[in-house]
Amino acid sequence: MPVVFLFGVKAKGNSWEVTVRVNEASQKIKEIPLVLLGMGKVGGALLQQLLSTREALQREAGIRFTIIGLADSTGALLDRGGLTDLLLAEAQQAKTAGRSFAGLEGALSLREIDSHLQPGSLLIDATASVKTVSLLKEVLAARCGIVLANKLPLAGPWAAAKLFFAHPLLRYEATVGAGLPIVSTLRTLLATGDRITSIEGILSGTLAYLCAQLMHGIPYSVALAQARALGYTEPDLREDLSGRDVVRKALILARTAGWPLDEGDITVEPLYPTELATLSVDGFLSAASTLDENYAHRVEEARLRGRVLRYVARVSPNGGAVGVEEVEKESALGALQGLENAVSFHTGRYASYPLVVSGPGAGPQVTAAGVLGDTIELAKRIERKEELG
Q1: pLDDT digits over 209-223, tens only?
Q2: What secondary structure, in 3-state letters, does the chain show?
Q3: What is the mean pLDDT of residues 190-200?
Q4: Does any domain span residue 137?
Q5: Is residue 299 part of a domain?
Q6: Which of 228, 243, 307, 373 could tie 326 with a disulfide, CB 3.0–4.6 Å?
Q7: Is residue 262 part of a domain?
């Protein structure tokens, strides 16, 4: 809060008497009601960040988020006046202990969320569910803002998803590259009149880690077990290995660029054969060793050509492809390490050398930070719109 110094000066004998009074100037605080859907790893990390940054945000930006709702897939805790810190802590403890909101005192139906929102409120979707789409449409119709960590509403059929890309009160930075400024960079290129010709990138921290381990000589099955033990994979590793999540991210980038592609426009190479798709998770892990020789051979072939294996997504106005590629070791994609993501934008201005955004592309904390950044920017936009009428 700004400080005002008030000075008073008067003569006193042969000297001057100076008095100073320090007053804190009043600052207009904009309260933004906020509902958070999803209390998994990202939602939990985001709640902590919202609470830990609220004083600084109020002081520096004049914005205070009032959390009026938390929801998981079973129920919602709602209070138009704001949930208390005690209740927020209890809710987080319940999720940590594996309990659902439906069993908490005062929990309401998810259908009640819409009635607690008012124009200017924000809703954050940190779920991984397509079932939130109808609620998201209602929220936008009610002139509220939305921030997505959930990719599914944006990656569904274009006829249904185009509403979200066209709406000025919806942001989705964290759906691609976690906290990296990938979507915002693309939007800046477009806003400044550049022409995007193609986009390529490594869009999965899990698969980036797997390819890096393969290049270090680790057998495929061992690298998978390591990734799972480190918490880098979904409970069923095939969710990552199928490439479907990378396809969703590629679709989001393509659609942001103005290319209305659908899933069928992007070919995908899974990192396991179809005959392993119906096995149990344990059965799949046991059978993964049958793929060790094949991937070791691909690694060696790439090495002989001075290249490395990477799981790459490529999109252009005509479609795209997702799969394992050999890339030059010194290239932006070949030089990545560990869980890093990178996206290269080939444009009219960046024709000879693409514009590259790279860095850590996975993890609850960086993803939550990306969501929080979107939430703050959207809150500022709503505030400016209200001030301008």
Answers
A1: 999 999 999 999 999
A2: CCEEEEEEEEEECCEEEEEEEEEECCCCCEEEEEEEECCCHHHHHHHHHHHHCHHHHHHHHCEEEEEEEEECCCCEEECCCCCCHHHHHHHHHHHHCCCCHHHCCCCECHHHHHHHCCCCCEEEECCCCHHHHHHHHHHHHCCCEEEECCCHHHHCCHHHHHHHHHCCCEECHHHCCCCCCHHHHHHHHHHCCCCEEEEEEECCHHHHHHHHHHHCCCCHHHHHHHHHHCCCCCCCCHHHHCCHHHHHHHHHHHHHCCCCCCHHHEEECCCCCHHHCCCCHHHHHHHHHHHHHHHHHHHHHHHHCCEEEEEEEEEECCEEEEEEEEEECCCCCCCCCCCEEEEEEEECCCCCCCEEEEEECCCHHHHHHHHHHHHHHHHHHHHHHHHHC
A3: 97
A4: yes
A5: yes
A6: 307
A7: yes
> Both tokens of residue 100?
């659902």
Model confidence band, residue 234 (pLDDT cutoffs 50, 70, 90): confident
| Amino acid present at 238 | R
Query: Annotated catalytic, 249?
Result: yes
Total structural domains within the chain: 2
β-strands 76-78, 63-71: how paired?
Answer: antiparallel
List, for residues 143-171, the tens digit of each pLDDT value.
999 999 999 999 999 999 999 998 999 99
Q: Which domain holds residue 136?
A: 30-178+366-388
Alpha carbon distance, N-terminus to C-terminus of the chain: 25
- Supply the pTM of this predicted model: 0.88
User: Do the domain assignments include residue 15?
Assistant: no
Of 249, 329, 380, 385, the catalytic one is 249
Mean pLDDT within 14-31: 60
Spatial CA neighbour of 140 closest among 108, 173, 112, 166: 166
Strand 122-125 to 196-202 pairing: unpaired
Q: Reply yes or no on whether the pLDDT at 1 is more than 50.
A: no
